[in-house]
Structure formats: C-alpha cells, structure tokens
Amino acid sequence: MDFLDIRLDMIWNYKELFIRGLWVTLGLTAVGYISGVILGLFIGMGKLSSKKWIYLPCKYYVDFFRGTPLLVQILLIHLALIPSIFGHSLGYFVSGALALTLNCAAYNAEIIRAGIQSIEKGQMEAARSLGMPRSVAMKHIILPQAFRRMVPPLGNELIALLKDSSLVTVIAANDLLYAGKVVAGAYARFWEPYITVAILYLLLTFVITKIIAYVEKRFSNSYIPKQRRRVFSFGRSAVEVNK
C-alpha cells in the first residue's frame, strides 16, 4: 500500500465501533485500576505484617501475578476460573476487569509497600510515644506522607494498565484493538485501522500523563496554592488582601 494512499472513509464508516471500543477500554482501565489500588493497599500492608499467616499469602500472591504474563492470567480467569465457579462465562468485561484488577493489585502492592517503608521509622515511633494506636498512626501520619512518594509510580502503573487492557481482545472484548481488527478484516487494509488505534491510545496516555503531572505537583512538598486576592476600596486608595 502506498503510504500516501490513506483511506479515512473506512475509519469513518466504523466510527461507532471505535467509540464503543474507546469506552470499553476506559471502563476496563478504570475498574481495574481503582479496584487494584484498593486491593493493593491491603496486600501491601499485609507484606509489612510480622505475622506469617498474613505475610506469606500476600507474598505468594504478588510473586504469582508479577511473575506470570497478563495474557495467561486473562485466559486462566476467563476460560478456567470463572466457568469452574459459576458454571459458565460471565462475559468479557467481568473476566477482563477481574484479570486487570488482580494483576494491577500485585504491582500496586509493591509500590505501596515501598512507599510506606521509605518513611523514617522515627515517624511511627513518635506517633506511638504520643499514645496513638498503630492503625491510627498509619492512617494519619505514615500513609499521607508515603502517598506523596507513591504518586509517580502509581501514575506509571495506570498508564501501563491502560495499554495492557488491549490484551483483553483475546477473549473477544469490544475494545479499541478489537475495533481495529474488525476494520482491518473488513477492508484487508492494516495501516489505517491500526494507526488509528495507536493514535487513540496515544491521546488517552497524553491526557492521563497531564492529570498525573498535576496530581504529582499538587501533592509535592513545594506546592503553594494560589491565593485569592480581595481588594477593599477606601475612597481613591485600595488595599489588597491575600486570602
């Protein structure tokens, strides 16, 4: 195919399929990431536990999901785990979201564990010396400080999960990559559909990167919020007050 012989009409004819795929991709990413952060928080805390019956399951969980390919995990959950529990498949979205959640939680657990351990031990000791229970000190003293350091790696995990969500196309999920495959099969042309998919993923990644940069700046130690200014007039003079 001539590089200059681009057919945009084939993309336009399937625009609804691409729009549907875009929403499916965003839905899978959102569910997988939010659930993965929540589950990862508990697993990360579990890896810090001194009790082996808590620590070992969390450790084995992280080792398994970080040590095996996400594609294999998706197939295991969709073709083996869910049918064995419910007797039938629950659809691509449930299988895909569950696989992304479990995989994301393993990586987030390590991020959270490392973030908590990066806080000086004296912070916890000082809180305990003031009579704070360990759980209260962790919630109000340690986690807020650790979260500032977790923002960049957690943001990178979100971007990685967005791109990894394309793997759910192997279980016939109607995501962006599936839309590209349909168009490529319908026209026997591959440049237009796949470059369209690549551009859409690039745009999504760009937007998320900007959001992460804002959040990282917002929670940085050097962040100074903009002050609202109120002006009070006294005759010909005015007084400007920061608020």
From TrEMBL:
Q: Which GO terms describe its biological process?
A: amino acid transport
UniProt domain ABC transmembrane type-1: residue ranges: 22-212
Q: What is its main location?
A: membrane
Topology class, membrane: Multi-pass membrane protein
**Record's keyword terms, sorted:** Amino-acid transport, Cell membrane, Membrane, Transmembrane, Transmembrane helix, Transport
Transport in keyword set: yes
Sample GO molecular function, one term: transmembrane transporter activity
Q: Where in or outside the cell?
A: Cell membrane
Transmembrane stretches in the record are 20-43, 64-86, 194-215
Q: Which InterPro entries match?
A: AA_ABC_transptr_permease_3TM, ArtM/GltK/GlnP/TcyL/YhdX-like, MetI-like, MetI-like_sf
GO cellular component terms? ATP-binding cassette (ABC) transporter complex
**Which Gene3D superfamilies does the record match to this protein?**
MetI-like (1.10.3720.10)
The record's SUPFAM superfamilies line, in alphabetical order, gives:
MetI-like
Instruction: Show the NCBIfam families listed in the entry.
Output: HEQRo_perm_3TM
Similarity comment: family membership: Belongs to the binding-protein-dependent transport system permease family. HisMQ subfamily.
Give the protein name, as stated in the record.
Amino acid ABC transporter permease
* Lineage, broadest ranks: Bacteria, Bacillati, Bacillota, Bacilli, Bacillales
